[in-house]
Specification:
9 helices; Glutaredoxin; alpha+beta; Glutathione S-transferase family protein; Glutathione S-transferase Yfyf (Class Pi), Chain A, domain 2; Glutathione-S-Trfase_C-like; 58% helix; Glutathione-S-Trfase_C_sf; Glutathione_S-Trfase_N; binds glutathione
Length: 217
């Protein structure tokens, strides 16, 4: 059965592949699973039909037969558990790869989301100028720690895994901030992820959605 995921009908990132459907698309491409996409507008996302699948009225979702999932981490983990290729067979290595998925989502992504919120929604606040460097420094702490752990390895724990997929998509959200350039080994790590053919296919698919929507106006 071909799963159906949801994505923005008109992504605010203008086709840069930073919305969270990108992680799901990439995971599906890595394991060679075909998928359908249902595009939703901001209005549709908040309506009852979509909220029945996603209680918080967001994307991405994942539907496959009787199963309906939300949360990009849970979706990617489900895909990785159903198919070979994104998690090692060895139980300990598998647990470590899943740990990196959680680290990406619950330790590295939060300060990156804070920066996005500050840039997008807090510019008019009187405390914006004081807050911005604090948020950027919090990200630097995490990037420094991550760079130390990565060292000169290609991936976080042996072969490429769902942990790397998640971490790369989280770090990509920093693209416009310039912060990644301060950590060349992490910039190279992201570039290695982006060079994977499965990433490219996923990126092209979401870009096509954006370009088509732009043509329609
Ligand atoms: N923790 C959720 C976050 C989902 C999320 O923030 N989705 C964004 C797009 S990347 C969204 O739907 N934003 C529109 C909104 O919240 O109204 C996940 O990882 O799936």
């Amino acid at each position: 059965m071909i799963p159906t995921i949801t994505a923005f009908a008109q992504s605010p990132d203008r086709g840069k592949g930073q919305a969270r459907d990108m992680r799901v698309r990439w995971a599906l491409e890595e394991v060679g699973q075909a998928y359908d996409v249902r595009l939703v507008s901001f209005t549709e996302m908040k309506q009852a039909a979509h909220r029945a699948v996603h209680p918080f009225g967001q994307i991405p979702t994942y539907e496959e037969g009787d199963l309906a999932l939300f949360e990009s981490g849970a979706i990617v983990l489900h895909i990785a558990q159903q198919h070979a290729g994104l998690l090692p067979d060895d139980p300990n290595a598998r647990a470590r790869a899943i740990t990196w998925m959680f680290a990406a989502l619950s330790t590295v992504e939060p300060p990156i989301v804070d920066l996005g919120v500050a840039l997008l929604l807090e510019r008019d606040q009187p405390w914006y100028a004081q807050r911005l460097p604090i948020v950027r420094d919090r990200i630097r702490v995490r990037l420094g720690e991550l760079a130390t752990r990565l060292g000169d390895a290609d991936w976080l724990d042996g072969a490429f895994s769902a942990g790397d997929l998640m971490m790369v998509t989280v770090l990509r959200r920093l693209n416009i901030s310039g912060l990644l350039d301060e950590y060349p080994s992490l910039a190279a790590y992201v570039a290695r992820g982006e060079a994977r053919p499965a990433f490219q296919r996923a990126f092209d698919a979401q870009l096509t959605v954006f370009n088509d929507a732009s043509k329609r106006g």
